[in-house]
Amino acid sequence: MSAIYKLKKGKWVLKFYQNILNLSLIILSCVLIFFLFRELFNIVKDAFIGNNDVHDILGRVLVFFLYFGFITMIVDYFKENYHFPIKNLLYIGITATIRFIIVNNEHPIQNLWLSLVVLVLMISYFLPNKRLEV
């Protein structure tokens, strides 16, 4: 009987930590939304000013989509009953690596290795999710 009492007693700690995590993710999503709109403002401003640096504009667009990806990952966290799907983490890794390749394109060998990293991430993204049956 005391084991059941200890189990019930410890559940409030789990709920407390879950609420702290949820609150911090809501605050993080608000901050990311602010940076998302700031990046969108900078992209529109560069379009009207006539910025000719293609790498700068493309880097800003990719950062915009990274913010968007993180916000979607937080939304999926709440939709999936408080866990992060691994496919979202792979998506973030793929887009971040592609952004790094586009922005930092001085070293061709490094870009080749990073392209292989993107290939491995894409293969693991599209692998079927099969559960082991025992």
Helix-strand string: HHHH
Structural class: mainly alpha
Radius of gyration: 21 Å
Estimated helix fraction = over 70%
| Mean pLDDT across residues | 84
What is the tally of beta strands?
0
Q: Beta-strand percentage?
A: under 5%
- DSSP helical segment count: 4
Shape: flat
The tally of structural domains comes to 1
What are the low-pLDDT stretches, counting only 5+ consecutive residues below 50? none
Report how far apart the termini are: 33 Å
> What about the largest sheet?
none
Question: Can you describe this structure?
Answer:
This protein is mostly helical and 134 residues long. 83% of the residues lie in helices and 0% in strands. The model has no long low-confidence stretch (mean pLDDT 84). The chain has helices spanning 2-49, 54-79, 86-103, 108-126. It is built from four helices and no strands. The chain has one domain. It is flat and about 70 Å long. The longest helix has 48 residues, at 2-49.
